[in-house]
Each structure stands twice: as C-alpha cells, then as structure tokens.
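Fold it.
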Amino acid sequence: MNKVYNTEIICVGTELLLGHVTNTNSRDISEMLSKIGINVKYHTVVGDNPEKLKDCVEIAKKRADIIITTGGLGPTCDDLTKQVLTSAFGLKLVENKAEMETIYEYIKGGKKVTPNNYIQAMLPEGCTVFHNEWGTAPGCAFEAEGKIVLMFPGPPKECVPMFKKLGLPYLKKLSEEQIVSHSLRLFGIGESAVDYMFRDEMNKMVNPTMAPYAKECDCLLQITAKAKSEEEAEKMIAPVMEEAKARLGDWVYGVDIECIEERVIELLKEKNLSFAAAESCTGGDVAGRFTDIPGASAVFKGGVVSYTNEVKAGVLGIDPTLIEEKGAVSYEVAKEMAERVRVLCGADIGVSVTGLAGPDGDGVHEVGTVFVGMAADKTYVKELHLGTYRTRSFIRRMAGNHVFDMMRRYLTGLNVI
C-alpha cells in the first residue's frame, strides 16, 4: 500500500469479557492482515453495551485508519454494532432486499422465521455488502470521515472465512501496489534463535522484509514484499526465500502451510505410504490432529490409545514383564509400541508416544519426560525433556510435533534423530 494504514480491531461481546468465549477473531484477523502488510496497532474488546461501544469507536477514529469490528450483527436485542457504527459516522441503516431474501431462504428450512431475523438485513447506506455464506448475518464495509470500516459477525466459523474471502480482497483494492507474503514453517528452532540468526539483515531490510513469529510449539519466518505487480513482488521475495531456506536447513518443514502434520500427509501421499499410532500420554492427540486434515484417511490406518499398562500388554501385546522392569515411560516400551502398532494395523510406519505430561511424576522421571518412537525399515526412539514447568497441553502437543517431525525427516531422507 502506498499509505501506511494502521488498524484497530474491536471485538464486541460480553461473553468475551466474561471468559465464556475465547477471542480468537483478533488473532486470526491480525495474522491475515500481517500477510498483506497492514499494521494492526490495537485490539479492543467491549461488552454488548452501546455507550461503551460508542466510546471505543470514538477512540478508534482518533488513532486508526481502518476499524474492523466483529460481533453484534445478529438478530437479538443486544446486537447493536451496526447501529452504533453508523450513528458514529452519521450514516443511516437501510434495508437490503437481497440479504433479506437470503436470510429467509437460509432459515425457513429449519425453523420459523421470526421478524427480528430481518434486522440483520439492515445495512449502512452505500456500503459494500459482504454476503455471509456460513450464517445469516451479512458483514459490510464503508468509508467515511477518512476512515475505512469493516464489520463481520462474531462466530469464528463465520468471521474467519468471511474475512479471508471478502475482507482481504476489499482491503487489497485500496492500493496500487501488490503485497505478497510467504512463510517458512520451522520446527526445532525457536523464534528468538531465528531472530538472532537474521537480525542484522532484518534491521537493514525495507522491501522485502522478514519477521519471525512464534506459533504453538513451532515458529515461522515471514517474508513480505510490495511491488507494482504480484509477479514483481514474487521475484523480490524469491532470492531472500532461497537464502533463508539454505541457512535454516533441516528446520524448514514447509512453505505456506499451517502445521507440520499437513506436510507429513503430503509426503505420505507422495510415497504411497501409511502409518499408525500408539499413544499413551498424548491420549489420541496425534491421531486427532492428523485426522483433522482432509485426506488423512488415504494414509492413516488407525491407532491405539494405550493409556494403561493393561492396554499396552493386552491390545498391543507388549510383554508385561518388560513394562514392569523398564517402566511404561521408557525407551524399550516406546520401541515396542511403535513396532507393534505397525504390525497390528498393517501400516508402513508405526509411531509411538509414552511419557509424563504432568502434573504428577512417576517417582523416576521428571514431568515432561517423553519417549517418541517410529518403526519403519528400522526403529528409532527419541528421549525428550520438555520442561517440568510446562502445561499438559504444551507437553502433549510438543510430543506430537516431534512424532510428526520424525516422520517428516524419514520421508525426506534426513537424519531421523
């Protein structure tokens, strides 16, 4: 963009302040905006109170060029975002017949259409309508008093796809320049280490730019360029991307993907291989994460949640004496789990996780001790110490990432451990 636009995101909903609902919309919208070079300067959360929302809007008008709201567009009496925003900018709400008909068609099949549902079809005069393919409440955008205002419904399942499909293209049209961004996804190196590695270059860069971001249990390095055309921006990014990939080496598990399991699915499909999982401390999280991705059925045979020693012995067939002598949290048991689930499910690769996610230890190992295994042409076992102070959810997810990374390395010919 020729002008530097600063943005404020205002999320409306008393449920957000009470903690009943986690405010993921601000995070997701901010991440999408960063990829097109728009700066988010402020996140604001306000309850379903018109006076307080009005105060927030007046503050936002003084410090932001773009104001994005989520929530408060529905049919209930506390859904007042449109009313407050239009009033703040001296606009009127007018009936949108096309949206009114769409709301009727959306609702009539499942339940009675009450008159208050049509409030959702009242939109600011002269606005750009964002049709909601995922719900009833449409979003919209308008420009007034030198500000750009975009409004979206609150439910993330509606807000996020709407913003991606309609909000981002609307904002991109504000500029004569094209902004292109690519992300290197990394596992095995932290955000601070990436920053230290590239700090000198990043401090000197203007266009393109690089920035590391911490994600849950991994991180990414984002490279962004502005140019007259998308092709020109891509050419600017290419050498920077190649240099970064070369320096980061084995830590790079993918480009422009969301998670490491997504990369593993790609590799398994490419090689026409399958895998199965035996899990203890992760409680099925490895299988769950994998099957969350469309297409997983082509490569995932199944799994066993062998949370107890009885299941490790009775279902997987591990010798109870081995479990007793070595302990469930051990190299030997992780090895047996991977090998036996591979045979049990008829998979090309078997993986395993056994460890202590806390908060209690076993009297032998500290919390955060985890063994992950992988059985293929040979068997590999890796001992992890993920931190006694970490949460159960962190330890479980990080252990899963290590399992996926072992497979990723094996399938790309890298050293597995």
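The CA atoms of residues 1 and 175 lie 5 Å apart.
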